[in-house]
Amino acid sequence: MNHKKIELNSSSTSFLVPYLLDKTAPFVLIIPGGGYNHYGSKEQESVALKFNEAGFSCGILYYSLSPFKFPAPLLDLARAMLYIRKMEKVWKIKNSKIIVCGFSAGGHLASLLGSYWNSSLLKYFLPGEYPENPLLLKPECLCLCYPVITAEKDFCHEGSISALTENLTDSDKKIILSLCAAGNVRDVVSTEKLVSKDFPPVFLWHTLEDSAVPAENTLFLAQALRKSGVNFEYHLFSTGSHGLSLAEGTPAGNWTNLFFEWYKTLFTS
Question: In this structure, is the dihedral angle defined by the CA atoms of residues 264, 241, 160 and 29, taken in order, positive or negative?
Fold first, then answer.
């Protein structure tokens, strides 16, 4: 195991903590939630160890939090992807497969990478870092756990969306809207409006009882994925509160096994 803290950028607070197996294995990049103002404590090491037990090497991304604004956390994730790609041989990553697993706001961040990996936005904000081959930024698949998806007022997690988008300067808004060809900043971070055929395959799960991030978030995303012909599997459990993490002892507690089975099917078909 290697738990050394790896700083990703001198101008950012982001860092990566690897949990590596001493063998060739696929890699899962874990992104904890926390509304973009803290990190969910249950969505860090316990998740990494669960994936380790199942034969995956892991890393936990600690991305920029408020008062950093969009697209700062997305740039952190892009830099993490590029660093992991650079370390593929050293870290013994099997077949260059990198999975991004995000929880709540971390799921939102993962979904944004699914949308923006090959975008003018990242090219503009990562001068000198954006790769010649943008596929280096594209995860092999996403695992989204009760993710924030939409910025629509009636269904969003307002704390996450506000932390990410409020207090952007007029200059920043103008640049972002120009790069994204969008009418307002909330559309720029509403993933269900950003899905295309180039979105990575997705495993996602949620609970109907989630009162913090309504189930409409994943329902909207599932509809968008289906419309664009993207491979996905969706589980909506009838009971369970927000922030379940591994969800042990609840009806959703089998989500990791469901993901492992879906992953096997995805890459052996």
Answer: negative
18 prior amide bond cis, ω within 30? no
- pTM value is 0.97
Phi and psi torsions of 111, nearest 5° = -65, -35
From first CA to last CA, the distance across the chain in angstroms is 31
Number of residues in the chain: 269
Contacts of 182 (CB under 8 A, 6+ apart): 176, 188
- Can the peptide bond before residue 71 be classed as cis, meaning omega within 30 degrees of 0? yes
CA distances for 131 relative to 78, 82, 88, 119, 243, angstroms: 10, 8, 16, 12, 34
Q: What are the residues whose beta carbons fall under 8 Å from the beta carbon of 263, sequence distance 6 or more?
A: 99, 141, 203
Pair 137, 79: CB distance under 8 Å:
no
The pLDDT value recorded for residue 84 is 97
67-90 per-position pLDDT tens digit: 999 999 999 999 999 999 999 999
Other Cβ atoms within 10 Å of 225 Cβ, number: 21
Residue with tokens 């936005």: 121
> Is-contact 208 236, C-beta < 8 A?
yes
CA–CA separation, 206 and 201 (whole Å): 17
Closest alpha carbon to 57 in 106, 15, 11, 19: 19
- Residue 234 near residue 222 (C-beta atoms within 8 A): yes
Q: At what angle do helices 105-116 and 72-86 cross, to 10 degrees?
A: 70
